[in-house]
Amino acid sequence: MSPSPVATADALPRVGISLGDVSGIGPEVTALALAKPAVRRALVPVVFGDGPTLDGFPLFRRFPRVSLSDLGRTTGPAVVEVTRLAEKHRVPGKPTREGGKAQYAYVRAAIDAMRAGTVDALCTAPVSKEEISRAGIPFMGHTEVLADAFGVDVLMMMDGPRVRIALATNHVPISALPKLLTVEKLVAQLQLLSRSLQPVVGRKPRIAVLGLNPHAGEGGMLGREEVEVIGPAIRAARSKRVDAHGPIPADGLFARPDEVGAKYDVVLAMYHDQGLIPAKALDFERTVNVTLGLPVPRTSPDHGTAYAIAGTGTASCVPMMEALLKAARLSTGPGPGARPGGAPGPRRPPSGR
């Protein structure tokens, strides 16, 4: 008898996986990652995706197909077949509007499972914001959709082996930053960051807060945000027992990346590229996108759909593997490597695992 494709032990967390754009590398890196022994030993996968696409991978043909409503009554790996796309809408490297609708549908189905408590964590394969938007669906990113779905404030954090970097703002134009950064918002984010990471690091985390302007504004000469917003927010957060430090110039902090992780547990960047560039430069393959503040952990690999190499067999599955393993670790409750926030994982109905 051939071995089970993945571990099915009752103690393992059940990780939902939204397949992403089937014309991108999501399906292939998901299949490759789930075939790794380390992943099989760590979690039980539930894939939300396209039936015909998944049929193209021997691993997924061995997974039982279940409906979303019956997911709580299953015990092992499963596929929730959300779509059955025509062949022209699932060609590697050639995205379509129908594919755009489909990749959004996989995320929504996974959210339904999160609400029902039939998955312990979510790992999202790459989607295309452009293709989802072309399909007529307003979409700024997974982080924003999940925050809206659960009605909570969240933080995007790039969790790498050398440094963690959270983002005060996500997918917004640079021109909008001065209005989006407020004292109240930054204080709330610093509290969320501190609360979420305390169970992980075993104490109150030390947070480095970056400035917005060059040289952190040079005392107001190069911009007033540090003087009027970021500095006051740090002081207010410290009065609430948050161990925050700054504002710190980004170029100075990341000039010695090995010292960042030794001195601080996490960095709060003011905007997307300020945080993502050093995160990807320091360790692209092993850095995982983690959404803090959700009732169920969510992770994703730190890359996009990679249409140019989709279907060529050259895509690395290491980022997806790291994202899956991180999702499994974060779903296990308080303790080393536990879910940020330390909340226990959702429990499925008695008829489940």
Write up what this structure looks like.
This protein is an alpha/beta fold. Helices cover about 40% and strands about 15% of the residues. The protein has 14 helices and twelve strands. The protein has helices spanning about 25-35, 35-40, 50-55, 60, 95-115, 130-135, 140-150, 175-180, 185-200, 225-240, 250-255, 255-265, 270-285, 320-330, and strands spanning about 15-20, 45-50, 65, 80-85, 120-125, 155-160, 165, 205-210, 245-250, 265-270, 290, 300. Strands 3-4-2-1-5-12-11-6-7-10-8-9 form a twelve-stranded mixed β-sheet, sandwiched between helices. The chain is globular and about 60 Å long.
Strand content: 15-25%
Strand order of the largest sheet: 3-4-2-1-5-12-11-6-7-10-8-9
What global shape is seen?
Answer: globular
CA radius of gyration: 20 Å
How would you describe this structure in keywords?
single chain, alpha/beta, 14 helices, disordered N terminus, disordered C terminus
Question: Mind sketching the topology for me?
Answer:
Layout: E1 14-18, H1 26-34, H2 37-42, E2 44-50, H3 51-55, H4 58-61, E3 65-66, E4 78-83, H5 97-116, E5 121-124, H6 129-134, H7 142-150, E6 155-159, E7 164-167, H8 177-180, H9 183-201, E8 207-210, H10 225-239, E9 244-248, H11 250-254, H12 257-263, E10 266-269, H13 272-283, E11 288-292, E12 298-301, H14 318-330
Parallel strand pairs: 1-2, 1-5, 2-4, 3-4, 5-12, 7-10, 8-9, 8-10
Antiparallel strand pairs: 6-7, 6-11, 11-12
Helix pairs in contact: 1-14, 9-10
